[in-house]
Specification:
The chain is an alpha/beta fold and about 325 residues long. It has two domains: about 5-115 and about 285-325, Nucleotidyltransferase, domain 5 (2-Layer Sandwich), CATH 3.30.420.40; about 125-280, 2-Layer Sandwich (Nucleotidyltransferase, domain 5), CATH 3.30.420. It is about 40% helix and about 20% strand. It has helices spanning about 45-65, 85-100, 110-125, 160-170, 175-180, 205-215, 220-245, 260-270, 290-300; strands at about 5-10, 15-20, 25-35, 75-80, 105-110, 130-135, 140-145, 145-155, 195, 200, 250-255, 275-280. The two termini are about 15 Å apart. The protein binds magnesium ion.
Length: about 325
């Protein structure tokens, strides 16, 4: 089979990323720019303005650092969703312009599927149960019959969002600050633990933790109580999905996969089921261009290109709406 090269563009939230991947599984470049709000959470329009400012530099760098010439590309992939509309539009606009200018296929990538596929690539997992945890997403997924099925998910806010918002409101900043402070915690305060089957709810927990803090509880103790509760809920729901699917690999992807404590808990749980645990390396844990490029390669090989007229962004695109036909071919 001829080797193909795809440029991938990520822009679902605070990161504008550019990557180039080949069908041999090589990542030739992975360049990411992250918008950091001066205070509070991500403001979608400000993030989009940040992305627009750094976009042309990013396009130039991805070619320079990869040594690939634009004409050598076989496709242009972009995150079509899910994500914040203004941010998604920046990446989609760049991708459409390049696809038209270079006369190359346009490949619409589901952001969550891309987190899973970059994990499978760099970790060598074949068929894992996946815990995808980040600031904007919390779900448990596994491949079955042509696509990634969602076995469990958050019923309200993302687990990462719960920890980030707590850290910001408590004045210590987002993750990893709450987890670092938790290491100095001594007292565990019970907090609402809400698991329903393989789903979990985090918003009541966030409110309760903030209340505890305003009632005068020690910050380190609240951090300990909150992180332990969040990670326990994630581990419990993941355990149900593992037992149900009877798979032998567990994979952690997304920004919260960087958590040392979450990893410890998941490893202890997986050991009881004889499953191996694989954690995505830090450079591919957060949103990045390489994961879109690699998933673009898989989609190009599976014939999933779309015409520019059908490339409208999909802010609520779920991973179980995205066909993954390359999996049947053993890719
Ligand atoms: Mg993400």
């Amino acid at each position: 089979m001829r080797e193909v090269k795809v440029l991938g563009i990520e822009s679902t939230a605070h990161t504008l990323g550019f990557g180039i991947a080949t069908s041999r599984g090589e990542i030739l470049a992975n360049i990411n720019y992250t918008y950091r709000p001066r205070e509070g959470g991500i403001h979608p329009r400000e993030a989009a303005q940040h992305h627009s400012r750094v976009a042309s530099e990013g396009v130039e760098r991805v070619f320079r650092e990869s040594g690939v010439r634009p004409g050598e590309l076989d496709g242009i992939a972009f995150s079509i969703g899910p994500g914040m509309g203004p941010c998604l539009r920046v990446g989609a606009t760049i991708a459409r312009a390049l696809a038209i200018r270079l006369g190359k296929p346009l490949l619409p990538v589901n952001h969550g599927v891309a987190h899973i596929e970059i994990g499978r690539l760099v970790l060598g997992c074949r068929d894992p149960v996946v815990l995808y945890v980040a600031g904007g997403n919390t779900l448990i997924a596994a491949y079955r019959d042509g696509r990634y099925r969602i076995f469990g998910e958050t019923l309200d806010i993302a687990a990462g969002n719960c920890l980030d918002v707590f850290g910001i409101r408590a004045g210590i900043g987002p993750m990893p600050a709450p987890e670092v402070r938790a290491r100095e915690g001594e007292r565990f305060h019970p907090l609402p633990y809400k698991v329903k089957g393989m789903d979990a709810s985090f918003s009541g927990l966030l409110t309760a933790a903030l209340n505890l803090l305003s009632e005068g509880a020690r910050l380190e103790d609240v951090c300990l109580s909150l992180t332990e509760t969040v990670y326990s809920m994630l581990t419990e729901t993941l355990e149900r999905a593992l037992a149900f699917t009877e798979k032998s690999e567990v994979m952690l992807v997304g920004g919260l996969a960087r958590s040392r404590r979450l990893r410890e808990m998941v490893e202890a749980m997986a050991e009881l089921h004889g499953a191996t645990v694989h954690v995505v390396p830090s450079e591919y844990a957060g949103d990045n261009g390489a994961m879109i490029a690699w998933t673009g390669v898989l989609q190009l090989l599976a014939g999933q290109e779309i015409p520019v007229e059908e490339s409208r962004i999909r802010p609520r695109y779920r991973i179980d709406e995205a066909p993954a036909p390359w999996r049947e071919r053993g890719l």
